[in-house]
Specification:
Elements: H1 2-22, E1 25-31, H2 50-57, E2 60-62, E3 65-66, H3 72-81, H4 97-102, H5 116-122, E4 126-132, E5 153-157, H6 171-181, E6 187-192, H7 204-209, H8 215-240, E7 247-253, E8 268-270, E9 275-277, H9 299-302, E10 306-309, E11 318-320, E12 325-326, H10 330-337, H11 354-357, E13 368-371, E14 385-389, E15 392-396, E16 403-407, H12 423-437, H13 451-459, H14 470-480, E17 487-489, H15 490-496, H16 503-510, E18 517-519, H17 520-524
Parallel strand pairs: 1-6, 1-7, 2-11, 3-12, 4-5, 4-6
Antiparallel strand pairs: 2-10, 7-10, 8-9, 13-14, 14-15, 15-16, 17-18
Length: 529
């Protein structure tokens, strides 16, 4: 009897270990503002990304991967939940609470939302998040911490007010330590790198590598090198711990590259990371010939690198140029890879495209939707809605009075508007986009608003303040715009209002798209009280 019991326990333990070994570890490396063309394997003329090139040579390079918003916070919310971020009223990046409320946004991602780490944790995975967070804002009190979303461990920057923050270059180090400590069990890690977001804080070693270039190129090249080195450190750790062959590794970016700014008069200070670095003048990321950049619904703002390596599954060195893969597809696809059955009541916006990881060219069955409420300037930032069905993509204003239609398989650069040639397709896709928009909430969940700000708005009487008219503001803009480029930098704004309080916050309230500079429309078109 004892022998039979021992044999039963031994078989049970063996089956458990076999099941654990069959379940892949999952590492998702998510860069920031890293353009589709910022890889040497995507043809960049001078940038070098040997570790990402290695990853691509050992796996699949998906060349039609889209995020679901052209800025960071909503893009990341889509990855976490498998839902379009607009379903949570997350339309732009999380800013200070007052600005979030002006935009009709919550102050954090709803912790009750279904999340990828929670599903994996409930199935026995050890879960961790290292690097950028930005599913709330550094000025937000009382925001849920990462454990509320399903993480066992987390060390982040750009988290909530009062959170302990890691340094910008600690993300890979923290990830490597976690891999070494958890090599005996299945794990899931979100690695959200700082590169190539501002402030650019390249290491001295990487700056020295590119010292032969002029400063603008030197800084950006060094930043890309630092990001690529972080990828290399993680890949090396997987190999050294013996788990590389059972680990699914992905690399992507949260949106397209930042627009290149004017040469700054001062460097940018990031109070969360306690660092000073280089500003957007050094942001010279490459879209790889795609139209638009960060904050645009054209492909340059939402088509980003997506490289997947999964030994025994992904064919080495393959380029998938046909499968339209998106960020909301990651949750169902990764759960399928891990053998995790999704709850019966989970209604995601994505599809399980696991067969694409196995080298098959999969056609999605659902349309792809985008909504944008930030920068709306010409020539590439005006669309408010976009929808893709098959190879057709329509971009449009909220009222569908202005549209463009592009056939992406023949025109990845979206250079030719063929709307007049296909009125039937325009009508169908416009209807599809507007019907989808009608399903979105009008207001954020009140449980995801900072109670402190609500109380202050309700209970604190505010003294009447003088209204500044557009005429007065236009004259001020003309005086303060010392280099006459029709843009106000923070430095010009502060110089014009020298001695007044809270200038950085006031500047941020005008800076609706968060690009660090004010257009005449942003500054003059808003009344200040």
């Amino acid at each position: 009897m004892k022998s039979a019991l021992c044999l039963l326990l031994l078989c049970s333990a063996f089956a458990t270990n076999l099941f654990a070994a069959a379940r892949p570890n999952i590492v998702f490396i998510f860069a920031d503002d890293w353009g589709w063309g910022d890889l040497s394997c995507h043809g960049h003329p001078w940038l070098q990304t040997p570790n990402l090139d290695r990853l691509a040579s050992e796996g699949i390079d998906f060349q039609q991967f889209n995020v679901l918003n052209p800025v960071c916070s909503p893009s990341r919310a889509a990855v976490m939940t498998g839902h379009y971020p607009a379903r949570y009223s997350i339309h732009q990046h999380f800013a200070a609470p007052a600005q979030n409320h002006e935009r009709g946004m919550p102050d954090w991602l709803d912790p009750k939302a279904p999340t990828l780490p929670r599903f994996l944790k409930q199935s026995g995975y050890r879960t961790a998040h290292f690097g950028k967070w930005h599913l709330t804002n550094r000025d937000t009190q009382g925001a849920p911490t990462p454990d509320a979303y399903g993480y066992d461990e987390a060390i982040v920057f750009n988290g909530g007010a009062g959170w302990v923050s890691e340094g910008l270059h600690d993300t890979a180090k923290d990830t490597v330590a976690f891999i070494k400590a958890n090599r005996e069990k299945p794990f899931f890690i979100n690695v959200w790198l700082h590169e190539s977001h501002t402030p650019h804080v390249p290491t001295p070693e990487s700056m020295a590598k590119w010292k032969h270039l002029e400063e603008q190129k030197q800084v950006y090249s060094a930043v890309i090198t630092d990001g690529d080195n972080a990828v290399g450190a993680i890949l090396d750790a997987l190999k050294e711990t013996g788990v590389a062959d059972n680990t699914l590794v992905m690399f992507s970016s949260d949106n397209g590259p930042e627009s290149t700014g004017k040469k700054p008069s001062a460097s940018k200070y990031d109070k969360d990371a306690q660092v000073t670095g280089y500003d957007t003048y050094y942001s010279i990321g490459d879209t790889g010939g795609l139209r638009g950049r960060k904050r645009s619904l054209f492909e340059g703002g939402v088509r980003v690198p997506f490289i997947v390596r999964w030994p025994g599954h992904t064919p080495a060195g393959m380029k998938n140029t046909t499968t339209a893969f998106t960020a909301v597809d990651l949750l169902p696809t990764l759960c399928a890879a891990a053998g995790v059955k999704l709850p019966a009541d989970y209604q995601g916006d994505g599809e399980n495209l696991l067969e694409a990881f196995n080298g098959k060219s999969i056609k999605r069955t659902r349309p792809i939707h985008w909504a944008w409420q930030g920068n709306k300037t010409e020539p590439d930032w005006w669309p408010r809605l976009a929808v893709r069905e098959g190879d057709w993509k329509l971009v449009m204003t909220d009222d569908a009075k202005r549209v463009e239609l592009h056939r992406l398989n023949a025109d990845r650069a979206e250079a030719a508007d063929v709307a007049k040639d296909h009125p039937d397709i325009v009508a169908r896709l416009s209807k599809l986009a507007l019907e989808w928009k009608a399903t979105l909430p009008e207001k954020p969940n009140p449980e995801c608003l900072t109670k402190q700000v609500i109380a202050e708005k309700t209970n604190t009487p505010k003294p009447a303040a003088k209204t500044v008219t557009p005429e007065v503001r236009a004259k001020a803009f003309a005086r303060w715009d010392v280099n006459k480029d029709n843009l106000l930098t923070l430095e010009e704004y502060k110089a014009g209002l020298k001695g007044q309080d809270n200038l950085e916050k006031r500047f941020a309230n005008f800076d609706k798209n968060g690009d660090g500079q004010l257009t005449r429309e942003e500054f003059i078109g808003t009344s200040e009280k």
